[in-house]
């Protein structure tokens, strides 16, 4: 079929059919997520090395984090993964209004996550746990403790950036779905958004125990 004469809704001109387009989207997203795994993997490796060297200091530093806030955020993200999965399913069934509503709920949960994280960052600033800017920790091994907070802000900060991007993308997908741009034959953008969102959630599932639970039990 000639590309110039193909008027299938949602089909880009470089593809022969929607299935080929969906497979291409899928492959591209998995390649992108693989690069993200490598990126986060390097940070996690650095964390592991320094934790092995300064285990006691990092154990004590972890106890200063607001563990209930981290636990609540974990529940928030797990719930958002559920609403995202339901949104993808409704998109596959061609139920655009329901999909849009679920995407908005997912976006709202993402915003709740960021608000809780902002509260945590503000708390760390108030108590003087910001490395290089406002670090007034008076306990033992201040240098090693400061290094823990370097990794804490690096890991949660990079994750937060990914979450902000995800919230923006989900908002756009909700708008497109509300406008009826997707159908049972063309819903790949919603699926790709879901893959990205689940990846960000999975990263947090690793961050929560590594950062918040290391100091427990006392």
Overview features:
218 residues, mainly alpha, 6 helices, 2 strands, 2% strand, disordered N terminus
How would you characterize this protein structure?
The protein is an all-alpha fold and 218 residues long. Helix content is 75%, strand content 2%. The chain contains six helices and two strands, in the order ααααββαα. The chain has helices at 18-53, 55-62, 67-92, 96-126, 142-178, 188-212, and strands at 129-130, 134-135. It has a two-stranded antiparallel sheet with strand order 1-2. A hairpin with a 3-residue loop joins strand 1 and strand 2 (134-135). Helix 4 (96-126) packs antiparallel against helix 5 (142-178) and helix 5 (142-178) runs antiparallel to helix 6. The longest helix has 37 residues, at 142-178. The relative contact order is 0.17.
Secondary structure layout:
Blueprint: H1 18-53, H2 55-62, H3 67-92, H4 96-126, E1 129-130, E2 134-135, H5 142-178, H6 188-212
Antiparallel strand pairs: 1-2
Shape: elongated
Cα radius of gyration in angstroms: 21 Å
The helix-and-strand class reads: mainly alpha
Order of helices and strands: HHHHEEHH
Q: In order across it, which strands form the biggest sheet?
A: 1-2
Percentage of residues in DSSP E strands: under 5%
Low-confidence stretches: 1-5
State the helix count: 6
Biggest sheet, open or closed, and with what strands and sense?
2 strands, antiparallel
Helix content: over 70%
Q: How many strands in all?
A: 2
Gap between N and C termini, in Å?
68 Å
